[in-house]
Design brief:
Elements (H helix, E strand, L loop, with lengths): L3 H14 L3 H13 L6 H14 L3 H9 L6 H13 L3 H14 L8 H12 L4 H12 L5 H13 L4 H10 L5 H13 L3 H10 L7 H13 L3 H18 L6 H14 L2 H13 L6 H13 L3 H10 L5 H13 L3 H12 L9 H14 L2 H13 L7 H13 L3 H9 L7 H14 L2 H14 L4 H14 L2 H14 L7 E6 L2 E6 L8 H14 L1
Antiparallel strand pairs: 1-2
Helix pairs in contact: 1-3, 2-3, 3-4, 3-5, 4-5, 5-6, 5-7, 6-7, 7-8, 7-9, 9-10, 9-11, 10-11, 11-12, 11-13, 13-14, 13-15, 14-15, 15-16, 15-17, 17-18, 17-19, 18-19, 19-20, 19-21, 20-21, 21-22, 21-23, 22-23, 23-24, 23-25, 25-26, 26-27, 27-28
Length: about 525
């Protein structure tokens, strides 16, 4: 027989050499013959090997179920394994079994895992149920538990105000809790609160994931210029303090913001930054660069990066197709799609692929080809049309003046038409002077978003074109009573790596007087 210390070394040494499940079973049989079939330590090691090294969750559960009295560590390992595969139901059921059978008492480390699964299974009160149990069992004062609860309340949108109350009452706030609270605010669209909280956090404990949370939060809420400004601040602090260097997540988020804002020069600078700091141009970063260059109009550079990727994936193809479509290069988008199909079963198109194709056909006036791709998507690939696909088809047919077919698409939709669908129809109607359908489209748009004064103004203009002046007066009166505002048009331009943003009839820019002087010069010179 081995002494305990020697046996531990012996078992761990064999476990390190295991390459597959059969090797593990031999070790398990060896332990059983030595009388250690019910030893917690060895069962834990075997279970962890199944879940981490060979990803055989079924056999891990077999080991677990044949243990007479599993302790908290075995339960935690098994619940963690289910959680990692997003099998939240099995995770919650096993936790419930542990509590009911009272084989082992929970500790502070199991609650963060359970809090990731319970809200997914028990809606809408999963977080509150676990919270009650935490308080009842006396684990409320543990920082790791407080942070997990804070994250759960903010992540699942249960009550962001309650999450903030918990945050303010925490005895010890670490960088994880700060990050969780900021991410919670950005998830529910309260970016202003997130920024204020960001400024309150001590600079000494800010880390890269914390910076990423505010940059990604701005991105997710369409605040691209703000995301870029936070990236600039991060770079400045890195140069001054030598810490919080941007990682791949930071760079990917910022590249996406550059693409949305058309900031090509900054995007090129970030591309150089990737090489200077040896971040490694993996597929994740390469796809982000393709998207950025493509959206900024540098399609040749985007294609050059694409061609240098050893093994492209669907995201790579979709980026190329959609960027060609965005800039009206229908032939390029269709060519990229046909090239993708030649790769056989390696990559199959998805819904995003066909959105790009349909947009390309719309810009190129390729109505029949667009219809063929729409049918291909449904029949050959079994992809259920989403609101974006319907919008593309209505736009394609509306621009071509084929309104009966466009209305047939609307009538056959399995989901209610949204602003994009009716807006696409309206644009086609205005181009082809179909005032009857335009009137219908505007009415539907007002029903969907009655506070958008722009739709009411469209309706009034339309009635004016039809000579229905009484109707014009009614619409104008309704707009005044509702105090509805038209969303101003917005544009931006990049000058010396700085974005200048302008709204319609906006004179807040510090160089407004100079801008208008130049505009008047151009107008007078025509």
């Amino acid at each position: 027989m081995f002494p305990a210390t020697s046996l531990n070394k012996h078992v761990l040494s064999i476990l390190d050499k295991c390459n597959n499940l059969n090797h593990l079973k031999q070790l398990q049989a060896h332990l059983i013959t030595l009388g250690h079939g019910q030893t917690h330590f060895y069962s834990f090691k075997l279970l962890r090997f199944c879940t981490v090294n060979v990803s055989d969750l079924a056999y891990a559960r077999y080991i677990f179920d044949h243990f007479n009295s599993p302790n908290i560590y075995l339960y935690t390992a098994m619940i963690t394994a289910y959680n990692s595969l997003c099998d939240h139901t099995s995770s919650v059921l096993l936790y419930r079994k542990m509590v009911r059978r009272n084989y082992s008492k929970p500790n502070e480390f199991i609650f963060p895992i359970v809090l990731k699964s319970c809200p997914e299974v028990v809606t809408p009160y999963g977080t509150q149920m676990v919270h009650t149990q935490i308080v009842k069992l006396g684990f409320w004062q543990y920082t790791v538990v407080q942070t997990a609860l804070l994250n759960a309340y903010s992540r699942y949108g249960v009550d962001i105000a309650l999450a903030r109350k918990m945050f303010d009452e925490m005895s010890e706030r670490n960088v994880v809790s700060w990050t969780a609270m900021i991410s919670g605010y950005t998830r529910v669209g309260e970016v202003g609160h997130a920024v204020l909280l960001f400024e309150e956090m001590p600079e000494s404990i800010r880390d890269t994931p914390f910076w990423n949370s505010i940059i990604a939060g701005c991105m997710q809420n369409g605040l691209f210029s703000e995301a870029i400004e936070f990236f600039r601040r991060m770079i400045f602090e890195e140069r001054v303090g030598g810490r919080n260097r941007p990682n791949q997540v930071t760079v990917v988020c910022t590249l996406s913001a550059c693409g949305h804002c058309g900031m090509l020069q900054l995007g090129k600078s970030i591309h150089s930054y990737i090489f200077r700091h040896a971040l490694g141009l993996d597929l994740f970063l390469a796809n982000s660069l393709i998207d950025m260059y493509g959206k900024c109009g540098s399609l040749n550079i985007a294609r050059m990066i694409f061609d240098r990727i050893k093994k492209v994936n669907l995201t790579s193809w979709n980026s190329m197709i959609n960027c060609f479509a965005l800039h009206g290069q229908s032939v390029g988008a269709i060519g990229a799609f046909e090239e993708m199909l030649h790769h056989g079963d390696e990559v199959k198109p998805d819904g995003v692929t066909f959105i790009g194709l349909l947009n390309a056909c719309t810009h190129g006036g390729l109505v029949e080809q667009g219809r063929q791709y729409y049918e291909m998507m449904i029949r050959e690939y079994g992809i259920e049309p989403q609101i974006e696909h319907y919008g593309c088809m209505v736009d394609l047919l509306g621009r071509a003046g084929r309104f009966e077919e466009a209305m047939e698409v609307v009538r056959r939709m399995r989901i209610p038409p949204d602003e994009v669908v009716w807006g696409s129809l309206l644009n086609g109607c205005r181009s082809h002077r179909r005032t009857d359908l335009a009137e219908l489209a505007v009415k539907k748009l007002i029903e969907i978003n009655p506070n958008n004064g722009g739709y009411g103004a469209m309706m009034a203009n339309l009635y004016g074109e039809l000579g229905k002046w009484d109707e014009v007066w009614k619409v104008r009166k309704s707009l005044n009573e509702q105090n509805a505002n038209k969303t101003p048009g917005c544009s931006w331009i990049e000058v010396d790596n700085q974005v200048h943003q302008f709204y319609s009839v906006d004179k807040s820019h510090p160089r407004t007087e100079e801008i208008y002087t130049i505009l008047e010069f151009f107008i007078d010179s025509q």
